[in-house]
């Protein structure tokens, strides 16, 4: 089997680097100047086993395609290139909910490429760790159990350990929703409201994640695994998390690099809209949606959460 990574951002590049330990890998990106050396991965260069290209037709000749594209860019990419992708094994790595359709990446992929096998690769990970060969464990979710097992063997490396699941919905939503909660956790710390407040945000945020995911058909136990609680813990407690840093900047009132992709900002708005349609109460998500659109201040966010009616846990 042959493997290509579509998307030469930090995460896509990191995946190509680690997968090169298993054999030749093709890495596709639009910017030829950044293909061999990614500025967001200083000190990391592509090994000879990684063949970098700007030729999408060449890259999509592989049997297995890892889609390492921003969640909000995936729909347009699929619309433009579905003919090259359909019938392949498509492994999505984006963590978000599409603002236009209010659906996750796997549903977008299935709609555009009905003959493809769809899988999700997600969990607690930073691109720099993967690229440097630090031990990382992720969830690989695929509804087709046999194909999922084959992909697990194909994409696991000496330092990247994949755990298999058939719950695509749960794995995908865990990865998307934790970014929203990470923004809230960052805002709390940026405003110096304390570790206790952050712990409360993480805990109640996890309850929101589980509430929405199970409503949409996910298994609750999936959310307690790597793709849910594991990823939530990492992104809410590390400065390496873009979503956490973005939230911290909002809380501290400091500037944030506008060129950095923050998936949780768009996802918060999409999930708040989805929750409204479903009649679900997701107060932290709603507060973050207001925060990222500057409709709500950090003080107002905390006031709204603290003044909610008292209830059982």
From TrEMBL:
Pathway: Membrane lipid metabolism; glycerophospholipid metabolism. Sn-glycerol 3-phosphate binds at residues 95, 123, 125, 178, 231, 241-243. It is found in: Cytoplasm. GO terms for cellular component: cytosol. NAD(+) binds at residues 7-12, 127, 242. Keywords: Cytoplasm, Lipid biosynthesis, Lipid metabolism, NAD, NADP, Nucleotide-binding, Oxidoreductase, Phospholipid biosynthesis, Phospholipid metabolism. Pfam families: NAD_Gly3P_dh_C, NAD_Gly3P_dh_N. GO terms for molecular function: glycerol-3-phosphate dehydrogenase (NAD+) activity; glycerol-3-phosphate dehydrogenase (NADP+) activity; NAD binding. Its EC number is 1.1.1.94. Belongs to the NAD-dependent glycerol-3-phosphate dehydrogenase family. Catalyzes the reduction of the glycolytic intermediate dihydroxyacetone phosphate (DHAP) to sn-glycerol 3-phosphate (G3P), the key precursor for phospholipid synthesis. This is Glycerol-3-phosphate dehydrogenase [NAD(P)+].
